[in-house]
Amino acid sequence: MLRIKNSLLGLLVLGYSSIHAQNNLDSVIHANKDKFIKVSLLEGEWESLDTFHNNIQFKVTKYDVHLLPKVHINPFSFNLKDSTTLSAKGMALNWPPYDCVISYISEKRLDIIYYDFMQSPPAIYSYKRKKTN
């Protein structure tokens, strides 16, 4: 009997954690659903401000914009509103889902906030525009 109670308690805790994480993710998605950025502002290469100095870039396709290099099974993808504007909220198709939001700070800096299902708090990475020679 004690074993069953412990099992049920464990399931309730897991269920609550999942619901809480999903609610947080849903609020992020809702808060950024109408936020758009001009594609031209993101063109070129960006370098992370951390000690790794990783490079990223945005590649425009016919229907969306991909954040490269891909860090999961699929790259993060941002829907195009029209040929010049993209949604600031992106996602990588996977389970568990990966979501991110671009915050364009200036022509020299942007932040990307990455959200993983059941991960708290989100990971925030800052990038500077890479200088071209």
What do these coordinates show?
The protein is of the alpha+beta class and 133 residues long. The chain has one domain (2-129): Lipocalin. 23% of the residues lie in helices and 43% in strands. It has 1 helix and 9 strands. It has one helix spanning 2-31, and strands spanning 36-38, 45-48, 55-60, 64-68, 76-82, 85-92, 98-106, 109-116, 123-129. Strands 2-3-4-5-6-7-8-9 form an 8-stranded antiparallel beta barrel. Strand 2 and strand 3 form a beta hairpin. The chain is globular. Mean pLDDT is 81; it is low at 9-23.
Task: Please specify the SSE layout and strand pairing.
Layout: H1 2-31, E1 36-38, E2 45-48, E3 55-60, E4 64-68, E5 76-82, E6 85-92, E7 98-106, E8 109-116, E9 123-129
Antiparallel strand pairs: 1-6, 2-3, 2-9, 3-4, 4-5, 5-6, 6-7, 7-8, 8-9
Q: In percent terms, what proportion of residues is strand?
A: 35-45%
Radius of gyration from the CA trace? 18 Å
The side-by-side strand order for the widest beta sheet comes to 2-3-4-5-6-7-8-9
- Per CATH, the class reads Mainly Beta
CATH topology: Lipocalin
Largest sheet: 8 strands, antiparallel, barrel
The structure class reads alpha+beta
Low-pLDDT sequence parts: 9-23
Helix content: 10-25%
| Topology order in helix (H) and strand (E) letters | HEEEEEEEEE
| Number of beta-strand segments | 9
Oligomer: single chain
**Could you tell me how far the N terminus lies from the C terminus, measured between alpha carbons in angstroms?**
71 Å
How many discrete structural domains? 1
The total count of helices amounts to 1
Q: What would the average pLDDT be, to the nearest integer?
A: 81
